[in-house]
Records
---
Amino acid sequence: MSPVLVASDLDRTLIYSAAALALTMPDARAPRLLCVEVHEARPLSYMTETAAALLTELGDAAVFVPTTTRTRKQYQRINLPGPAPKYAICANGGHILVDGVADEEWHAQVQARLADECASLDEVRDHLAATADPLWVRKHRVAEDFFAYLVVERELLPEEWVKELAVWAEVRGWTVSLQGRKIYAVPKPLTKSAAMREVARRSGALRSLAAGDSLLDADLLLAADQGWRPGHGELAETEWNADTVIALPERGVAAGERILREFLREVR
């Protein structure tokens, strides 16, 4: 039998910062947590111990592919439980890692497509620098020469500015996503779904499952045979739905646990 490919977003889908855990139950009933990421000697991301056990089972039963907008360096800070994934997708599909090493042929294909189909990264960076107010911008960042993002003070961020940026980006072949304190500007041809299809081809998987919480995950969910989204995030806030995508009620770290249960149920 061909293997099942499971491509899942990480942040706010399977792993959670302390601020995103959404522990609404009494303290005494809170789940035990496992730290899966440390940055600058500080714990940064967590999953429940139950979710960690489920992910270990999943890694043995399917081709599990971490699928993230993170750069390679940011991804490699994460220490997920279970077997080390043979494949990982980073930079929103810009890189496919094979046993931890970036596939240069895939990287070159992506770069060529971006050059042909959308405005340059420099044009987008210049626009962000000219229009984003230092009052609410804390950092300007570029990820692996693929896309740009801002770290902002969310409570000060004007909603109209985000809408205007999205319109400006749309006609230039880019998309905008607001995730927590970060605003991403990403080229439309740079997709997790294209990278997932390539990994499916290489692994021989004929069935694919996916999960994600942001607008940057929508194409991934649509490309999979079955998808899930948690009860938080951009997709939930915009009430985004599709016939093959199940909207879960759980929010925060409980959603990560539920998603892994759903993956395992489908794989089995």
---
Amino acid sequence: MFGNYLIGLREGLEASLVVCILIAYLVKTGRRDALKPIWIGIGVAVGVALAFGAGLEFGSQELTFEAQELLGGSLSIVAVVLVTWMVFWMRRTARHLKAELHGRLDAALQMGTGALVATAFLAVGREGLETALFVWASVRASSDGTSAPLAGVLLGLLTAVLLGWLFYRGALKINLAKFFTWTGGMLVVVAAGVLAYGVHDLQEARFLDGLANKAFDISATIPPDSWYGTLLKGVFNFQPNPTVLQVTVWALYLIPTLALFLAPIGSGPSVRVKKQKATDEKADAEASAETTA
């Protein structure tokens, strides 16, 4: 349940911050007349995300078992790719997000109502579709026959909405850079579990081989129905009897991705510094040549 709560919190907070930035900017610039189109765009984006999630859930039920596993495994991999891109993108651009959204909003204000609706829809819609896909894949991976995974997601989303409202009111201030770094790192761990589960789905669909080739089996030590087995599955999508391919893919994704994500940003020379150094070296060379002449 914790892993699904983290997904709802992290993804929901990003969308909440986008909404807060858009609304606060319009209020501070005295453009309250533009709030209605913004809320319309946000509402449409939320509706599309919900419809997309419902389509995934109910549409897959009409398929055969192997088709369900093939679809589930494929979409799990797509979800992991998207969420990995998202956490790296947010880590790199979080500090510039406000300025970027303000620029888009200024351009939309000059173009009219339709542009405002589109701006809000695109800003929130991308987050909504990513959230719907990753939540569906994660809930499917950690489903144990109860409503706990979905409850965790909903609780995370509600927490994100509350935090967004507190940010807007100025009642809460936290270091967002550190928050997104820590939650992003944990989300990479959750994504690794979803990826391993997606590979297992593809093996059950007979798309990939090796279903009977188990890396280990500790079901007797950590029973899946025990409280600690359920906890490990809910947090890490842990499986006590994974295949060799699952463990291999899990390790090949988690280790380098987490290392790259936690590496310091801008640890090497920036492009500006490199250009400036090249310019200085060229100027020194020209000056030396003139002196020699």
